[in-house]
Records
---
Amino acid sequence: MYAPHDGDPRRLVDLAVQAEELGFAAAWIGDSLLAKPRAEPLSVLAAVAAATERIDIGTAVLLASMRNATQLAQQAATVDALSGGRLILGVGAGPPAPDVNADFDLVGGDFDRRGTQLMQIVHDARELWQADGTPTAQRLQPVCVTEGGPRLWLGGSGPRGLERAGRHFDGWFPTAPAVDAFAEQLVTMRAHAADAGRDPALITAAAYLTVNIGDPDTAAAEVDEHSKLYYGAPAEVVRRLLGTYSGTQAQVAAWLQSYIDAGCEHISIRLASSDVDTQLDRLVELLPELRS
């Protein structure tokens, strides 16, 4: 589950606790500096780790190339240790948007090479997580509970992203605007995994989807309002980039089921509404309708 908040990061911790109590598998948080109104994700997840016991916690997705590899590796190892190995580090290069470019400028990042730098940072972090403690190896503290470091999922659905996900990551995490495209891309990603000698079945196929559940007209209006406030664009524009749907419980359930039928194994659901509590109640009511 992924939900917006009112600026108080404690509310995010409360929502993660609520999600665990309701039986959700994971709680997710996004990442940006000024491009979007968000709290720093790994700091929030450290608090969530201490307040929960079972639920996976993850970033959807972290812009790794805006960070120093060693510092990121230490932060992630700390959250992994605090959570008892429940961290999923979703990472991505970031979309080609002016506000994201501006965030990179703020930290001195190279926006044009962000994809290449992402892969280098992932490589360097994994080496640090795998250091064996011998005199020639530097070992981070704390040590990750998860052997070899936390699970790494890659966001993105372009040709290079699909290849990278299949060859190097534990999960694939696109925004999946259309289910048919998701299904085709999943086949491509798994083919890259097989070409690399990996078992495609071991790579989690996920999707990041946005919903609003209710009267179709009211739900559509709320999604449009959310899109304009959050992205500065109407819903019809955002839908081309992000899997987004609004409608009754039955309609939303059928839409989510279409992704499951296409091979999606994990869905991160963002609630596009200022009334998160009502949306969450409606989401819980429709979950029994979904079939794995």
Note: The first strand starts at residue 26 and ends at 29.
---
Amino acid sequence: MSSPPGSTPLTLAAAEHGSGRPVVILHGLFGSARNWASIAKRLAATHHVYALDLRNHGASPWAETMRYSEMAEDVRAFLRDRGLDGTATLLGHSLGGKVAMVTALRHPDDVARLVVVDVAPVAYPMTLLPYVRAMRTVDLDAMTRRSEVEAALSKAVPDPAVRLFLLQNLVVEDGRLKWRLNLPVIEREMPELSGFPEFPAGTVYTGPTLFVAGERSDYIRPEHRVAIERLFPNAGLATVPDAGHWVHAERPEAFLETLRPFLTGDGEPKA
């Protein structure tokens, strides 16, 4: 498929580790390459790992739109710029999993293998929208300490673990606190980000594909298997015990044990 009309792919920031078969990691909403540093370094013993920052996240450029087609073209441009097209495993979590799926469906020859972590090719409720709005309402100009921002978020984001995750996007520039997220655009594009694009009938990615679910998460449900099998006929599903949505962070050892055989080709997916 061609690039969306009028769009120019962005040059994404990347953290690079190790050598060997290439693996490209795409983080979830509010995340960045930093969130995957531990996993990336572990995989770097046997693989050349690139952890990317998606547009409007981390150190990557900001843009006024975040359509999945655009984000997929950003990733494809990265693969081609680095000479990875057709050889790399694309691994994405949550939002990054959707971007990875769209990239594989739009450009199947550019993706050697696909790993989708705790998300399905379906639309979800906009449950994360309140987090965006809460972050936008914090008056960073009136604050100098991280603890003040955390306190300001505590009512809208009562879970301390989620608050700490969001606060990873808080940085100091020129002596002032700021978010490394393009929050106005993320808020405006939340209907797009919560959904999943429609593809023409017959569109498939037939490469080896592994969906990894957290046992305690409901992001991949039995009723999603129809959509998964329609678009990814060679997909298998593995469940990581006692893991929630952030599978890689909550159960890193079990996650890696699930992942490694698939990355090497020793453990092909089974439906």
Note: The chain is about 35% helix and 15% strand.
